[in-house]
Amino acid sequence: MEQQQPEKKHKRRVRYKGTHPRRFEEKYKELNPEKYGDTIQKVISKGSTPAGMHISICVKEILEFFDIQPGQKGLDATLGYGGHTRKMLEKLQGKGHIYALDVDPIESVKTEKRLHDAGFGEDILTIKHINFANIDQVAEEVGPFDFILADLGVSSMQIDNPERGFSYKFEGPLDLRLNPEKGISAAERLEDITKAEFEGMLIENADEPYAKQIAKETVATMKRGKKIKTTTDLKDVIERALNFLPEKERKEAVKKSCQRTFQALRIDVNSEFEVLEELLEKLPDALAPGGKVAILTFHSGEDRLVKHAFKYGKKVGIYSDVAKDVIRPSKEECAQNGRAKSTKMRWAIKVK
Ligand SMILES: C[S@@+](CC[C@H](N)C(=O)[O-])C[C@H]1O[C@@H](n2cnc3c(N)ncnc32)[C@H](O)[C@@H]1O
């Protein structure tokens, strides 16, 4: 008699997720960029940014302008994924120091670990969870700096994470805070906003052409007792507000109005204009004589502030030279990284 084989335990087949995982957490390979180099390169060569990563903009232009020498002291006011910081650290060749700031407690911890694992320890890199509006305190403690970089706005990791609510493209809580531990979320901000205030915010922060209609529909929605708590809730409001447009233009118009409305709210809940103004005012004192500053902006409101501050600084003799024209990323860079298309760079040099 044939001996009975012990029954094999049936293994449940791992469910196939398909080649295009749609949920953010499922993009596991991309979320581990250091480990899956090939996957990352494929995504980048298609002109996309891998999930959990940020592609630094104008790196060549920034490095050429700074001309960093070993032994110098620099400040990256917006650490993000640490791409610029890392390139600047390499230029120090082990001598000197870079201080880096970021208000985001979620991403900056990951970046800190990534940079430390790459060999940039506390001897050469110090990361501080501080708003760049407080650059005067940092400069007083460890400055002045030979070079300062500010790459404004949000990182791809922040935009792509639905939990942060930065994009209308993903369902998530309508938060939009760079530091979710401080202040109020965009959903809370909308709770008691007036029509006039929201309309003003949309015009001032994003030049929204349908500001009136969007503000009206937002307030009407809340008056009906419906809360605007998620990214999709807000997108639905915008869709309803633009319902009067001819059908063939509507889809594109809704997309653009969503982008601008999210931008306007993000600027508001993070006081982005106010902190940029503070940074620009305090910059000269944070720079060493002959020190250089470069700022990357992503919309006209930011660029205007930087342009005027640098121009004024040159006029009154704080800066010896400033960028005459705005510097744009190359065509090749924009083709590789869609997020570079709206970038404008300006620089200034403090008098010696
Ligand atoms: C465009 S990303 C920087 C990307 C970075 N240059 C890189 O190469 O990875 C902007 C970063 O600045 C941070 N940030 C924005 N406003 C800030 C502020 N006022 N103070 C400090 N950090 C800020 C954001 O949290 C975000 O991580």
From TrEMBL:
Main location: cytoplasm
Keywords assigned: Cytoplasm, Methyltransferase, rRNA processing, S-adenosyl-L-methionine, Transferase
Catalytic activity: cytidine(1402) in 16S rRNA + S-adenosyl-L-methionine = N(4)-methylcytidine(1402) in 16S rRNA + S-adenosyl-L-homocysteine + H(+)
InterPro entries (alphabetical): RsmH, SAM-dep_MeTrfase_MraW_recog, SAM-dependent_MTases_sf
Compartments, record wording: Cytoplasm
Domain of life: Bacteria
E.C. number(s) listed in UniProt: 2.1.1.199
Bias-annotated ranges (Basic residues): 8-21
GO terms classed as biological process: rRNA base methylation
A Gene Ontology cellular-component term: cytoplasm
Region (Disordered): 1-21
Binding site for S-adenosyl-L-methionine: G82, G83, H84, D102, F132, D151, Q158
Sample GO molecular function, one term: rRNA (cytosine-N4-)-methyltransferase activity
Purpose of the protein: Specifically methylates the N4 position of cytidine in position 1402 (C1402) of 16S rRNA.
Family, per entry: Belongs to the methyltransferase superfamily. RsmH family.
NCBIfam families the UniProt entry points to: 16S rRNA (cytosine(1402)-N(4))-methyltransferase RsmH (TIGR00006)
Protein's name according to its UniProt entry: Ribosomal RNA small subunit methyltransferase H
Organism: Anaerostipes hadrus
Lineage summary: Bacteria, Bacillati, Bacillota, Clostridia, Lachnospirales
